[in-house]
């Protein structure tokens, strides 16, 4: 029969001890909550936990070991995540869910230490249904409200002159295009071309000299 391993047991943490412990961990949060894991960072974490242990036991309360403090810290973090998850679950209920009391001071102290992204998760920027408590909505201004607007630049247009003769020629040309083609028959295609549509042939230079 193998010998049973005796586990060291101690008294439960009181509320005062939990608040004191959370306050001591808060002072070393930048080192304890660092996600780096190498030889240097692990050594710094061990030194930080030693400072927390010495400061906690110097208050004259129950003497704790470093393993007990680490286990208590993990339990408090797990409890804080469960409390926040239950609150978010109640918010999604009908009518906002049942009323939810404020957090326990110990839970609030732990939430100030740990990274909130590990509690509520990452916010998706592409989800239109996502709601943020810190989000602001743009409210349209009322017509009676005064809004400081930027000065509107004034553009001076240059005067333009239009030749009346050109406009009349364009109008006549447009009328000629609007002639109805219902009365035309294929036989009229054999008629000679009108003088206006005939191509102009330049007069030879020798003929001009003879006429001169």
UniProtKB/TrEMBL annotation:
Organism superkingdom: Eukaryota
Residues forming coiled coils: none
Keywords linked to the UniProt accession: DNA-binding, Transcription, Transcription regulation
Family matches, as InterPro entries: Myb_DNA-bind_5
GO CC entries: nucleus
GO molecular function: DNA binding
Residue span, Myb/SANT-like DNA-binding domain: 9-85
Assembly: Self-associates forming complexes of several hundred monomers.
Described function: Involved in transvection phenomena (= synapsis-dependent gene expression), where the synaptic pairing of chromosomes carrying genes with which zeste interacts influences the expression of these genes. Zeste binds to DNA and stimulates transcription from a nearby promoter.
This protein's name: Regulatory protein zeste
Species the sequence originates in: Popillia japonica
């Amino acid at each position: 029969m193998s010998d049973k391993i005796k586990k060291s047991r101690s008294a439960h943490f009181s509320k005062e001890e939990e608040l004191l412990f959370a306050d001591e961990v808060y002072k070393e949060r930048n080192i304890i909550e660092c996600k780096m894991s190498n030889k240097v960072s692990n050594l710094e974490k061990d030194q930080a936990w030693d400072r927390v242990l010495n400061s906690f036991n110097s208050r004259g309360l129950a003497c704790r070991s470093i393993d007990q403090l680490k286990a208590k810290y993990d339990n408090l973090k797990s409890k804080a995540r469960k409390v926040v998850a239950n609150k978010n679950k109640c918010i999604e209920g009908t009518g906002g869910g049942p009323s939810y009391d404020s957090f326990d001071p110990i839970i609030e102290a732990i939430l100030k230490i740990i990274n909130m992204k590990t509690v509520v998760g990452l916010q998706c920027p592409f989800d239109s249904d996502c709601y943020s408590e810190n989000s602001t909505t743009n409210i349209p201004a009322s017509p009676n409200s005064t809004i400081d607007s930027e000065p509107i630049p004034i553009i001076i247009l240059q005067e333009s002159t239009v030749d009346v003769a050109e406009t009349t020629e364009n109008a006549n040309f447009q009328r000629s295009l609007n002639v109805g083609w219902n009365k035309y028959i294929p036989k009229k295609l054999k008629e000679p071309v009108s003088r206006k549509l005939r191509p102009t042939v330049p007069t030879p230079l020798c003929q001009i000299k003879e006429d001169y």
